[in-house]
Write a structure and sequence with these properties.
Layout lengths: L22 H26 L2 H21 E4 L3 E7 L2 E6 L2 E4 L5 E7 L3 E11 L5 E12 L2 H6 L4 H18 L3 H6 L1 H16 L4 E12 L2 H43 L1 H15 L13 H13 L1
Helix pairs in contact: 1-2, 4-6, 7-8
């Protein structure tokens, strides 16, 4: 942070944690009870000439104002408050104003928004004995806050650990080629496994995404050589197919020229025209084509 930059105060709570919204209201309730009560007790003590009331009255209203201010709690729109009264589940309240009576009641707030949790690097051995490091992220929501608080000790930690185990189990049952080519199917299968267990905890798994699949360096080099050899194989096959097609076309052209004697002469003229298009090419004709044909006929008659 630059030396001349003022620190920015966070106005929002960390995701998944309760944001205290009732502070100003509790302060107002405390002032409205304590100040008038103290003034009333002092006036009564002054009128009755009882010094004990001057000490006990303000103390009583201080305790009353403190208790009354702690009764009021406010839950945000995305929060639900799980109320435990004398240790037993009493109800689910929120959003808005919640009355929680200290000593008898305790409240624990649950964030019902879409939560995100990172799945750290997991070293997995695939079905074909290839070690890979895989990490990902899980997106989930708390659909039943009562189950999330009463059934499991820490639902965020539980769903995170179960996601890691499910990721290792699913990827361990697949080959490396399947892991690299069928990522969407793997993600859906892991999410299905975690969802089947999370429902008992009041949690709905929205999706699980694999972020990175890291393999050993020697395996990466071998895969690179394999891909290069595969591309060279396709190039060789393509060239061979092109040579075969060219040979068929040349054979067909030879048959056409043999059937028409003038075709060879036209092809020769086309070749000369192509060579003469550049000023650097020089074509020297030793004998005319007609003279060559006459010599061939004379030799044929002899």
């Amino acid at each position: 942070m630059p030396y001349n930059q003022e620190p920015v105060e966070r106005t929002l709570a960390v995701p998944g944690q309760h944001q205290s919204l009732g502070g100003p209201l509790r302060s107002l309730i405390f002032i409205l009870i304590w100040l008038p009560g103290t003034a009333l007790s002092l006036s009564l003590a002054w009128a009755s000439q009882r010094p004990a009331l001057m000490a006990l009255g303000p103390l009583f209203f201080l305790l009353l104002a403190t208790y009354a201010s702690r009764v009021v709690r406010i839950a945000a729109q995305w929060e639900r408050g799980v109320i435990l009264r004398l240790g037993r589940f009493h109800g689910l309240k929120g959003p808005g104003l919640i009355l929680v009576f200290p000593v008898a009641d305790t409240v624990q707030f649950v964030d019902t928004r879409l939560l995100t949790m990172e799945i750290p690097h997991q070293q997995v051995i695939t079905r074909d004995n290839v070690p890979v490091n895989v990490d990902g992220v899980i997106f989930f929501t708390v659909q039943d806050p009562e189950k999330a608080i009463v059934t499991v000790q820490d639902y965020r930690y539980a769903i995170g650990q179960y996601s890691q185990a499910a990721l290792r189990d699913v990827i361990g049952s697949m080959a490396l080629d399947e892991l690299l080519s069928e990522r969407d199917e793997i993600q859906a299968k892991i999410a299905q496994v975690v969802e089947s267990r999370g429902q008992a905890w009041g949690i709905h798994v929205d999706s699980i995404r694999l972020l990175d699949i890291d393999m050993p360096e020697d395996l990466k080099r071998m895969m690179s050589r394999q891909a290069s050899a595969e591309r060279e194989k396709r190039a060789t096959i393509t060239k061979a197919e092109g040579d075969a097609a060219a040979a068929l076309n040349l054979a067909s052209a030879v048959q056409t020229m043999h059937a028409s004697p003038g075709a060879m002469q036209l092809r020769t003229l086309q070749t000369q025209d192509g060579l003469g298009a550049s000023s650097s090419n020089t074509v020297v004709m030793a004998l005319p084509l007609e003279l060559v044909n006459i010599i061939k006929k004379v030799r044929a008659t002899d």
